[in-house]
Amino acid sequence: MATAGSADERYDITRRSSGLGRRRLTEQAFAALGVASAVVAVGILGLVLGTVLYKGFSQLSLSFFTKPRPLFGESGGIADALVGSALIVGMCMAMAIPFAVLVAVYMSEYAGPRFSRILRVVLDILNGVPAIVVGIFVFGLLVVGRGQSAIFGALSLAVLMLPMVARATQEVLEVIPRSLREASLALGVTRWRTTVSIVLPSAIGGILTGVVIAVARVAGETAPLLFTSSIAANQISGDVTNALPTLPVAIFAFSESPDPGEQAAGWAAALVLIGFVLVMNILAKVFAANRRKRLEGA
Amino acid sequence: MTTPEIDRTRLGALAEPASGDGRGDDVVFDVRDLSVSYSGNVALKDATLQVRENYVTAFIGPSGCGKSTFIRVFNRMNDLIDGARVEGTVLYHDRDLYGDGVDPVEVRRRIGMVFQKPNPFPKSIYDNIAFGPRVLGMKKGLDERVERALQSAALWDEVKDRLKENALGLSGGQQQRLCIARAIAVEPDVILMDEPASALDPISTSRIEDLIHDLKRSYTIVIVTHNMQQAARVADMTAFFSVEVRDDGGRHGVLVEYDRTTKIFTNPSDRRTEDYVTGRFG
Ligand SMILES: Nc1ncnc2c1ncn2[C@@H]1O[C@H](COP(=O)(O)OP(=O)(O)OP(=O)(O)O)[C@@H](O)[C@H]1O
Ligand SMILES: [Mg+2]
Questions:
Q1: How far is the C-alpha of A49 from the C-alpha of A271, rounded, in Å?
Q2: How many helices (H) and strands (E) does chain B have?
Q3: A295 at the B interface (CB within 8 A)?
Q4: Which of A156, A260, B38, B146 has the least CB density, counted as fewest CB within 10 Å?
Q5: Is the CB of B73 under 6 A from ligand 1?
Q6: How does DSSP assign A129-195, residue by residue?
Q7: Contact across the interface for B122 and A297, Cβ inside 8 Å
Q8: Shortest-distance atom of ligand 1 to CA B71
């Protein structure tokens, strides 16, 4: 031992060494800072939820969900926007998900490490393209000359969804153990069959998590829809070749209205949208938990 | 140059089969001057040996000597590794395993593999076994096939009432026997096992060894093991590998000696083998 002294002194753990006081203080300051930041983060979410709930909740009623937006003054609802949003998000999913999963499968199962890295960067850049840029792109490419349509709206949302789902899927595929693929390949099973029957089913929980989060994101996107599907009649319609009303655009329009009743309806619509996002996020957690259970075999 | 001929004879081209019970009459794998490298780094150099039919052939040797690398040559598993390169000749029943027009997928359905860590699919016990036969079009009598495979792997009695349960709920030893059953279910010709018992407790290990004894009646088995007693217990033939350090400082695996297991363990010809099997190896 370097320090001399009796055993009593050496093993006396109640004695404080020099500098301990300062180290303790720094430690406590850091902890306090962390707690404060966490409180602020939770507070912001609470404030947003609280405000929307406070301003919008009283407007909610069954007819709010079943009636379309009123033409003038009379009380109405957002049924037209809900149907439009559902159709557009549905079409968006149909366009984006298969494509995204294929890209992810290609990256993790077929492409070499270098090309896979390049693709990853490309997807990340695409993911960072602002929604309004995607909107004006689809507008310039398709809407000009043809007019707005829900299909174009869905397409612009799909451009936003593709990199999110592709990256989420690719990340899940990456953590599927190599040994699982080898087990299948060693049976004389082809690579694509291994992917379809072993790898993707093992990853399904993670893929769904990514999809659900992406859906929650694009369902609230407004900018691309302003370009592609905003000039619509206030009636429930399934004609996707024309512009359809949607929830985010409705919130925008309601809030612009001079009529206080409509403004209140805007808050209520916002509440519906936020509620949807919350439900989707809880769903994502459920899928993620399921997936862990599957892979760990409980 | 001195006498490679003598080496040849010692390295497995035995004059007469060892068992006397009809096993070992035919050669399943005839490997000549096999070298494997990963991205230019030689892992195994100039290995020559013959694997005989219905024999259990054990690969032993210190870590990193290329045992896994070698065994993965037999089912072309190394094809899946970027940068892996196989040189030399590997004949499977006199056909070039690496010849043009040989599809690795076809190779693997005839030459099954059991891995070091049990790797059941996250599916039911039944589906784990049925997956291979289903995909490979052996759909007739699937239930019987699953039962037979599980019986051959000495697992049937333990799982017959829970076939629908997730295989990941089985113990490690049961999972490994499930993996053996899975390999058997597609009726391979050869079963490769890379340290199949190294992750298991002694009781599970001895069950796997008993199983290997039963399986060699129907299959040719090549097994990698770190456990010399295990090699001595299960194998007819044993190949001892070692690591050689080159002048440039690089290291690669070499096949030092290949002979009947009894000979390897009681009267090896090479000093390095003797040091290893007597535990003097550092
Ligand atoms: N996928 C790979 N890529 C690059 N090098 C590898 C790869 N697999 C093995 N090697 C190298 O090849 C050599 C032989 O490895 P191998 O796994 O065949 O040894 P082993 O005898 O099975 O060892 P162990 O007893 O530890 O399993 C080692 O130097 C190892 O680093
Ligand atoms: Mg190994």
A1: 8
A2: 11, 10
A3: yes
A4: A260
A5: no
A6: S-HHHHHHHHIIIIITTT---HHHHHHHHHHHHHHHHHHHHHHHHHHS-HHHHHHHHTTT--HHHHI
A7: yes
A8: 18
In 3D space, the residue among B105, B114, B78 whose CA is nearest the CA of residue B190 turns out to be: B114
Q: In this structure, what is the dihedral angle of CA atoms B15, B16, B17, B18, given to the nearest 10 degrees?
A: -100
Residues A47, A75: one domain?
no
d(CA B109, CA A186): 7
What ipTM score was computed for the predicted complex, to two decimals?
0.89
Q: What is the pLDDT along chain B (282 residues), one digit of tens a residue?
A: 333 343 444 444 444 455 567 777 789 999 999 999 999 999 999 999 999 999 999 999 999 999 999 999 999 999 999 899 999 999 999 999 999 999 999 999 999 999 999 999 999 999 999 999 999 999 899 999 999 999 988 899 999 999 999 999 999 999 999 999 999 999 999 999 999 988 888 888 888 899 999 999 999 999 999 888 899 999 999 999 999 998 888 899 999 999 999 999 999 999 999 999 888 754
CB within 8 Å: A188 and B80: no
Under an 8 A CB cutoff, do B112 and A180 touch?
Answer: no
Same domain for A36 and A103? Answer: no
- Cα-Cα-Cα-Cα dihedral sign, residues A171, A172, A175, A180: negative
Q: Are A124 and A163 in contact (CB under 8 A)?
A: yes
Boundary (domain end) residue, out of A59, A75, A94: A59
Task: Enter the pTM of the model.
Answer: 0.83
Considering CB atoms only, which of A183, A185, A298 is closest to B80? Answer: A185
For residue B241, give the ligand nearest its CA: 1
Note whether A135 and A35 are same-domain residues: no
* Sign of torsion over alpha carbons A123, A125, A131, A133: negative
Hey, what amino acid is at B157? D
- Interface check A195 vs B, CB under 8 A: no
